[in-house]
Design brief:
2 domains; 3 strands
């Protein structure tokens, strides 16, 4: 961590974290606290999820969550219920969209 702080000081990042507001050793303590907080933050998964959440589907379709649920229950959008949580497979979503496109043409 000391090495990381030294790198932050060299790059000028320490000033951004508020060293000028906390002169002397208090500034270093402030920076150390901030670095520890940043290290504790939850890391986001790198791999793509196998199934989409309802909000993910809503974003992809450009509609609200309620509309996605209506599509599932009334229009046949395929979904899976896993442990009380509804998910949609991306390939099923694409296939369903193609079917809807063909029916409306």
């Amino acid at each position: 961590m000391v090495k990381l702080l030294a790198q932050l000081e060299e790059t000028g990042f320490v000033a951004v974290l508020g060293r000028s507001e906390f002169p002397g050793s208090a500034g270093r303590e402030h920076v150390e606290r901030r670095v520890k907080e940043m290290a504790r933050r939850k890391r986001q998964p790198v791999a793509q999820p196998l199934l989409l959440t309802i909000p993910d589907v809503a974003i992809q379709l450009g509609v609200c969550r309620n509309t996605v649920y209506n599509l599932i229950y009334h229009s046949g959008l395929p979904s899976v219920l896993l442990g009380g949580v509804r998910r949609v497979h991306p390939a099923s979503l694409q296939e369903w969209l193609k079917q809807c496109e063909q029916q409306s043409a």
